[in-house]
Amino acid sequence: MASRRAPEPYGACRTEISERHDVTDTVAGVSRVGVVGCGQMGAGIAEVCARSGLEVKVAETTGEALEIGRTRLYNSLAKAAERGKISDEEHQATLERLSFTTDLGEFADRDLVIEAVVENEQVKTEIFQVLDQVVTSRDAILASNTSSIPLVKLAVATSRPDQVIGIHFFNPAPVQKLVELIPALTTSEETIKRSEAVVEQVLAKHAIRAQDRSGFVVNALLIPYLLSAIRMFESGIASREDIDNGMELGCAHPMGPLKLSDLIGLDTVASVADSMYAEFKEPLYAAPPLLQRMVDAGRLGRKTGSGFYTYS
Questions:
Q1: Which UniProt keywords are listed (predicted)?
Q2: Is 275 one of the annotated active-site residues of the chain?
């Protein structure tokens, strides 16, 4: 997700994916998946689904964005093959399951659509309204990978609120084991069970359920921790290196909080913080001024080459 501003609307435990399914061997009636957005998260989700045997179509807003996303996805698969994570045969089969488009109308036959675009309520709502019109199957699951936006707001934007659910992956999606399932108040039990079956039986992820509250489970715990580290650095209590080393070497965290913020994306950290603060009015959830200034300056972390650290 590149920015907290809305773009043009559409027309740390690591593991490898261990189960493979043929596209004809459907679970919960899902064999054809659509992924809206091919940024860092969208490409990762598309890779997870395709490597798990599902036929995947990926959509982006423009041809240029689509080519960037396609290159990101193909490079990730190539690295997995080079490192022996997947065989040459699996690599080729995965590529054959992937297709790309700039037209959401091509999602008409999808059994499951996962939206993974910028963390902006208006943009996501518009996408769900379009999906509601173009996806023909009334059994199709419409899911969002949102980190913080209330699922019920997306659900009621459609004529099928019982089919809308949050399926929240973690970065990098191909290796992170956890997925949060977030039902809205309107989500049917059947949709929850089908989504859980796909996540666990097809994608070989571990699903946890969260209430439709800003931050869900993981970010409700993680974001205040990251904001505390940013405030500590902003106030000059410690250097960025000492803050990160303190948590890595003192608490056995695999990555310090400022490095982790850069990996997540500072715009995403700020967006989730804003959403949590708006819902709970807890001062510790408010984004520090330094974080806001860095986002305004376009210093978003790894994806822009500059955040709390500089990346080549």
A1: Oxidoreductase
A2: no
